[in-house]
Every structure is written in structure tokens, then in C-alpha cells.
């Protein structure tokens, strides 16, 4: 049974519309302004923008990333100021439904990973839909990953980490890295990954009202990202890929998520392909709940498990 604290926090998030004076939950439609969404996310992140004293941020220039995209090295104080001086790294693929997210609004999330593991992280922007549908995000991800390899960090000392759409991009990038014959990282870590942009899992319907994800987002944002392409392209939806030869993977997911089936089905297919896969399904938990640590015990335990996994793979 889930804790009282978790029930309270999740209830508050599910009903956040009430605190904004709205009776009904927000529903994403084609008329929803993506620009406004991005602005709100950045504005919200700025309220928590004070970096911990033991974490530093250093901008980096990645040749090949399109103009306007940023990248930065987030690292423990006293550590190397650039990836080339480090011996291990987290390569972070941010979430945001492929339509939102950047270094500004994910910096604090990634700083927590760095603080908990003692491992520096490369955080980078990628082009967003609907202006830039697939393959833009994947092209930018491969550009950033190649650059990180060029800094001299051994692939076996890199873990790719992502949440939500970024979790799906994490897993899809493992396929792309393998297919492009680049050196694979030590592991992948995906929190609530979006692995099926065809949205065929039953949990898209059965968990819609139990999750904290914004209603309708998977249909609208998924369509923006897929564009004219086949949603079952493995570099878009890794669930449909040949998963042989991938490195070890950890997936954390809640059983009240719309993306539950995306995680369960991907993990089953990965296991059948011989991948060292660890799937953790948490009772009564919702989208990306480990990021809510330390607000309730389940989030804290999942967060600590995830940090232990990253550290173990980078020993």
C-alpha cells in the first residue's frame, strides 16, 4: 500500500487546476499554444534556479548543433570544468513531450543527478516539434553524443539518462548509436519512458485519469514529433526496434501511468533479446515520480535505487 504522503502529493498534483481557479483538468488540443507552454516551463524553473553551492555549470560549444541550441557541463564543485577532463559522465536527454524543454528548465533536475552521484553531466538542447519534427531531435542527440566521445571519455564510463519523452529518446538513442556503429555507453536509465508514439498500449486509456500527465498530450505532441514519418520507426518508438546488443538498462515506472505499457512491453522485448534489463514497477505511482523525491517515501526509494544503479555502472 502506498504511503499517506504519496497520496497527498499526487492528489495535489492531479488537482493542480483547482489551485489555478479552474474546475477541470487541462487538456492539450491542437489549439494549445506550444510557445506559451515553453514560456511557462521556463518561468516555473526560474523559481528554483539557485544552483547548490557544490554544483557548478559551465556552458560548452558543440559544433554541429544548430544555432540557438545550448549545451552545458554540470559538475561537482572541485571537479573538472569540462567533459574532456573527466573520466566518466552522465549524458542527459531531457523530457518535455518533444515540444518543450531545454537546458534552462532542466538544469536543476540534472544538477540533482550530479549531486547524488558525484558524476558530471552533459545537458544539451535539441530541436523541438512542431517546428522541427523527427529526425531533428535524434540528429542533435547523436551530434552531442559524438562530441562527448571526442572529449576522451570512454564509452564504458558514460550512462545515458532521460525522463518521459527524454526517457524514450534515451532508449531510441541506444538503438541509433548501435545502428550508426558508434561505441555504446555503459548503460541507459529511463524514467517513465515514452517508447510507443503510436500510443497502442491499454494504459493510455485505463490510466489517463489516474496519472498526472496532461490529458491529450500524447496524441497532440506525439503527432507533432512524428510528423510525416511512421510512428513505429524504431528511432521514434524504440518499442518497435530490434533490441539485440543494447547495454544494460534500468526503467522506473508507476503502475498508474499512461506510459506503463510502454515500459512493460519494452522491457519484455528487451529481455527476450538478451538485454540486461531491470524494470521497476511501483504500486500507485505516477509519471516520473522519482523526481518528486524527497517529498514521499516511494519517490525517495526509487530515486536512491536509480542513483545507486548509475554509480554501479560507472565504477
Backbone CA Rg: 18 Å
Number of helices: 10
Helix coverage percent: 25-40%
State the major sheet.
Answer: 8 strands, mixed
CATH hierarchy: architecture? 3-Layer(aba) Sandwich
What is the averaged pLDDT score? Answer: 95
CATH C-level category: Alpha Beta
What does this structure look like?
The protein is α/β, with parallel strands linked by helices and 315 residues long. It has a single domain, classed as 3-Layer(aba) Sandwich (Rossmann fold). It is built from 10 helices and 8 strands. It has helices at 4-14, 16-19, 34-46, 103-117, 136-150, 165-179, 203-206, 217-226, 260-272, 297-313; strands spanning 55-59, 71-76, 89-93, 121-124, 158-163, 187-191, 249-254, 277-282. The protein has an 8-stranded mixed β-sheet with strand order 1-2-4-3-5-6-7-8, sandwiched between helices. Helix 9 (260-272) links the parallel strand 7 and strand 8. It is globular. It starts with a helix and ends with a helix.
Amino acid at each position: 500500500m502506498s504511503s499517506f504522503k504519496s497520496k497527498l502529493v499526487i492528489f495535489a498534483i492531479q488537482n493542480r487546476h483547482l489551485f489555478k481557479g479552474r474546475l477541470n483538468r487541462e487538456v492539450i488540443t491542437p489549439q494549445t499554444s506550444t510557445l506559451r507552454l515553453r514560456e511557462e516551463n521556463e518561468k516555473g524553473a526560474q523559481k528554483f534556479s539557485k544552483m547548490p553551492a557544490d554544483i557548478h555549470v559551465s556552458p560548452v560549444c558543440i559544433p554541429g548543433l544548430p544555432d540557438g541550441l545550448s549545451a552545458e557541463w554540470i559538475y561537482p564543485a572541485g571537479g573538472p570544468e569540462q567533459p574532456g577532463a573527466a573520466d566518466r559522465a552522465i549524458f542527459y536527454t531531457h523530457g518535455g513531450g518533444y515540444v518543450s524543454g531545454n537546458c534552462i528548465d532542466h538544469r536543476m533536475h540534472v544538477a540533482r543527478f550530479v549531486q547524488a552521484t558525484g558524476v558530471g553531466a552533459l545537458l544539451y538542447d535539441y530541436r523541438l516539434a512542431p517546428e522541427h519534427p523527427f529526425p531533428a531531435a535524434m540528429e542533435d542527440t547523436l551530434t552531442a553524443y559524438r562530441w562527448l566521445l571526442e572529449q576522451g571519455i570512454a564509452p564504458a564510463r558514460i550512462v545515458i539518462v532521460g525522463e518521459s519523452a527524454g526517457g524514450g529518446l534515451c532508449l531510441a538513442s541506444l538503438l541509433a548509436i548501435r545502428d550508426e556503429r558508434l561505441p555504446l555507453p555503459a548503460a541507459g536509465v529511463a524514467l517513465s519512458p515514452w517508447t510507443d508514439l503510436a500510443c497502442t498500449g491499454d494504459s493510455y486509456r485505463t490510466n489517463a485519469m489516474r496519472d498526472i500527465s496532461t490529458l491529450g498530450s500524447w496524441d497532440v505532441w506525439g503527432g507533432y514529433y512524428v510528423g510525416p514519418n511512421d510512428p513505429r520507426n524504431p528511432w521514434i518508438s524504440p518499442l518497435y526496434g530490434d533490441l539485440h546488443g543494447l547495454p544494460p538498462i534500468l526503467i522506473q515506472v508507476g503502475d498508474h501511468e499512461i506510459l506503463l505499457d510502454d515500459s512493460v512491453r519494452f522491457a519484455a522485448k528487451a529481455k527476450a533479446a538478451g538485454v540486461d534489463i531491470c524494470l521497476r514497477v511501483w504500486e500507485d505511482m505516477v509519471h516520473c515520480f522519482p523526481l518528486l523525491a524527497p517529498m514521499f517515501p516511494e519517490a525517495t526509494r526509487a530515486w536512491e535505487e536509480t542513483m545507486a544503479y548509475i554509480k554501479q555502472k560507472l565504477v
